[in-house]
Structures are given as C-alpha cells and as structure tokens.
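Continuing the batch. This is chain 6 of the set; chains 1 through 5 are on the previous pages. Same settings as before, nothing changed between runs. Recording input and output for traceability.
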Amino acid sequence: MEEKERHALRDLKRYVSITEKKAIVLGNLVSCDGHEEGISIRVVTHVHQDHVISIGRSLSRCRLTISTKPTRDLLGVLYNVRPYRVLGLDYRKALDIQGSKLWLEKANHIIGACQVVLDHADGLRIVYTGDFKQPGTPVVDADILVMEATYGSPSLVRPSQEVIYHALLDVVRKSLSKGPVYIYGYHGKLQEAMQLLTEAGIEAPFTAPLRVYRVSQICLRYGMRLKAPILIESEEGREIMKSGWYVAFLHSSSGYTSRPRGTSIILSGWEFSGPIRFLGENRYIVALSDHADFKQLIEYVESSRPRLVITDNSREGYAAKLAKEIEKRLKIKATPMPPVRMRRWAR
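Output for chain 6:
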C-alpha cells in the first residue's frame, strides 16, 4: 500500500472507535449501543441486551439518549426506562450536532431497530448498520461503514426467507393437528413468527408470558399485523392452555423444555444445515434469523460503496473474517475493530 493511501485510511479510521465496553463511537460525537465517557449523545439501535449496555449510565450522564419511538417504548417494558428520558426520533429526521447531522434509518431486525447515519461537518458520511437482515433494510451510501458481523463467514449462508417461512408454517400446521405448539425465540423473532402465522391464517389462539405479551402489544401499536396473544397467566390463558390447541410463544431464556404433549420449535439463526431440522422427541429447529447472513452482508457493502468498512469485533461473530472477505471480493479496505475480539456474546 502506498504511503499516501495509508495516511488517507488512517485519517478515516480516526472518525470511528469501538471500545472494550462495546460502545461504537462515531465522529467523536455519538456513542451507539454502549456508553462512552465524554460523549454526550447515546443512540440505542434496538433493545436486545448486547445493545443496551450501560443504558443507566448513559441516561444519567449523557445530554441526550436517542432511539426510535418503538425502541423507546420497549426500553420501558424490558428495562424499566421511563419514556420521557429517551428522545424518540422518527426515521430520517435529522438532528444538528455541532454542525453535523445525525439521523436514523430503518433496519429490519426487531421493531424499532435502526441504522445510525452521521453526516459529519467535515464532509464525510459515517453509517453504522446496527443489527439487520434482508430483505427490508435500506442500504445507505457511506464513506465509512461500520457494520455487524454476526454471520461474517462465507460458510454462513442460509436458504431464502421464503423457504424458511414455508418450513415453519408447514411444521406448525402439521403439529397443531396433534396438539399444542411451543415456539421459542428472542423478542422480535417471536413477533415475526406471530405475524407470519397470522397472515397465513393459523386459527389456533396465541398465548404468551407477560414480557412476550407486552412486547407484542407494542408491536401491534406500531403497525405489525399479528394476532394479539392471550396472556398465559390470565384466566382466559389458563383455559386455552387446558384446551390443548394453541401456539405458545416463549422466550429462549425460559429454556427449551421437552413437553409431554405437543411440539417444540426453536427459532435459531445459527442453524445452517437447512431450513428445518428434526431434533427428536417432537422438537424441531427452524433457521429463522434476525441477522444478515454472509451473502447479505457482502451485498450491503457492495451497494453502499464505502471507502472504508469497519466490522464490529466487540460482539459475537466473524468480524476479522468478514473484513478479509470484503477486501478480497470487493477490493474495499476493511478492518475489524477492536483488532482483538472481546468476550463472546451468545444470542
């Protein structure tokens, strides 16, 4: 690499840092998905736990904590954050920050998820994708692109969403003819499955424990088309559970318990052997993910046309491998940050 090019890349890198505490700092103005002392603005891209790190510290020390409105409401449900403490920003509505423009773009991940765009006063556009998948995530042109790398290895390519949706619907329909169905997943993925089953005309009632129920209510409020689940703990919910004909949506943290009757379905983005796999004892795993696979990550970079890509090496994934593949396939400079991976975060 020529000396002039090395200097140019060094100049670009100084606009982004990713800390050991998983804060992604853009332009030394905004900290995303982690707290950084001295940075007065915090953005929460979505409510999954590894992106809400040190939210309490940010609320007490930052001048502004920003998210989309659905994320603001979900922060209240899942982390007891009072809504007035978070600025709920509409997509593409810009804020002026010391001569730079900050705005949020949609990301298809969980309701309210966003990308963060900083049009810096120096004339550079810095984009942080947050977590996303395709289809449904707009590609933003960038000079510097900071991106997730969860499935950043070339071997991590799954079937199309349509094929996976079909497999999930097929096993749910067949299983309901024999008894109840229990679907396990994370917030966002569960509601995506609810919407899929609703639109496919699944008639069995949906049930959910309190937190899944409350997240689903927010999804309904912000326009997701899903049949409202019945609270398992309610009198109506208990009667439905006695009936033996229902679909229960349970958070993965509750454990994948074997059921004496019925069928258990685990939704996991780490399933790459096919759209669905039988685990035995009426248990299945379906390859439904809320993250881009390797192909989708590469396609985003190719369409965004950045001068530099920084892959997030502070969270679980393949940041170093993705950076190498971007340079090899697209001839775009890429580097993992931090250069040494921090503790893995399984999700």
